[in-house]
């Protein structure tokens, strides 16, 4: 009984602290709200370690730090718009000229056994997740080093197209630069998804808001947070051999994809019933990957002219479509849905 009273008192105190926006760290916030799962390394690595770190991240005229952080791939968010020529160009094989065709190079030999018109397919069917299957994939390391900032700090900065000039001025970004265009595109994407799409989604501008959204969407704090794990430095593209496939979830989950921005912003969405797999693979160079793959059972809300349907030549809502997650994307799964996945 005494333990229950003490526990209740602790929870009450923490709730009071949270509600009054006291200066508790994002890491403590996670531990209080999601006590049954560890913070993934890819999150912990980008948390500010002290108030000095936060002050250092406040961009000014003399700061030479990177203004906007970019990742390699954002396939998880490409289902909502019409596939662009740039997106297709990134994954298609180059068609060599007659002179180039006569030259036998290492690249041409490596590509000779690729199917269709693609170097690799960012989307695939569940049957492709089979032991012994050899697939071509780019790096699982997304390279987006954007740091998490505290909720108190990011809520003092606008995140709206109406305030785009104020945002650019805050981070000392030239309005005619590529960084400015990226800032605008990310904010526009985040504002459009609230209006145009029926999936439950949000752009989390802090770790605290990501945690809150996961709790509201999944309805429990008994949640497992998992990410892709990479052992080694992967090249941009190589062959991987699947060694083991383990289904770790079958039901609603939430996935958060890191966006290109001046600090850590994640597009989080709950896309209906999904199957989640942990896929152990080894690359041609010996790189070991335990990749997370999500298969969406219902694709009826995706753009019919989006990249998944162009690649697979399918129509929305006809069959589950799968994709892998890079190592900075987080999957939140109710623990009752998971099997014996080792975090």
Question: What portion of residues is helical?
Answer: 25-40%
Outline: globular
- Overall average pLDDT: 80
Number of strands: 11
Number of helices in the DSSP assignment: 12
Order of helices and strands: HHHHHHHEHHHEHEEEEEEEHEE
> How would a textbook summarize the main sheet?
6 strands, antiparallel
| Percent of sequence in beta strands | 15-25%
What would you report as the Rg, rounded to the nearest angstrom? 21 Å
Summarize the structure.
This protein has helices at about 1-20, 25-35, 40-45, 50-55, 85-90, 100, 105-110, 150-155, 165-170, 180-195, 205-220, 305-310, and strands at about 135-140, 200-205, 225, 230, 235-250, 255-260, 265-270, 275-285, 290-295, 320-325, 330-335.
Structure description:
Helix 2 (26-33) runs parallel beside helix 11 (207-218). The strands form 2 sheets. Strands 1, 4, 5, 8, 9 and 10 form a 6-stranded antiparallel beta sheet that branches. The chain has one domain (23-91, 119-334). The two termini are 33 Å apart. Residues 16-22, 58-64, 95-115 and 339-343 have low confidence and may be disordered. The chain is an alpha+beta fold. Strand 6 and strand 7 (266-270) form a beta hairpin. The chain is 30% helix and 21% strand.
